[in-house]
Task: structure prediction
Amino acid sequence: MRQFGSNVKVMDHPLIVHKISMLRDISTSMKEFRELVEEISMLMGFEATRDLPLKEVEIETPVATARAQVISGKKLALVPILRAGLGMVDGMLSLLPAAKVGHIGLFRDPDTLLPVEYYCKLPEDLHERDIIVLDPMLATGGSASASIQLLKNKGVKNIKLMCILAAPEGILKVQTAHPDVEILCGAVDEKTNEHGYIIPGLGDAGDRMFGTK
Ligand code: PRP
Ligand code: URA
Result:
């Protein structure tokens, strides 16, 4: 396993590994692709929420009073990067139903591969929340870095990035620009090609999810 530093976690759970292999397969249909992205996001969400703080409360069981632990009500927001990040929202919301959701719309200019912002709608109290940025693909890292910078410019302090597939150069770019951000990856692939696609990857996540090609 390649080492990317302590702020990068690469998933090794067999269910995640298996489902990512199915996601890569060219014969996986659009419907299956959507379902897999949702399922993988929920499984990865388990790891992304591992450090949520707990507090002690008193509850009545049918037979006694118990001191028990519940999540301390930490405020969270999910921020999918459009379009493909949308596919990760429902899986995460099934774990975190009270999380607010902000949206950042970016597309990569096909010539420069640089991200172009076209939409941004975020919760007003964003700066009071911990953020999980969602995007299935971390390729050159331009889109993730720009989104994280945009969130930091709004006063956000605590950000995690959750992606299903990453290329080493994308990880490096985010790590260099944002060393404070924890990166959770489902898998790390070999490289990006001259068009900025992850190799071997899964193709264009947005197109496969929404049937646009
Ligand atoms: C894809 C993907 C990421 C970005 C990753 O989006 O969902 O946002 O590319 O590439 P990068 O790390 O090199 O920036 P795309 O720009 O294709 O837009 P889409 O989701 O609308 O298809
Ligand atoms: N965006 C995608 O959807 N796929 C890639 O391989 C790279 C960026």
Observations:
- The radius of gyration is 18 Å.
- The pocket of uracil (ligand 2) is lined by residues 84, 137, 139, 196-198, 201, 204-206 (CB under 6 Å).
- DSSP finds six helices and 13 strands in the chain.
- The CA atoms of residues 165 and 195 lie 16 Å apart.
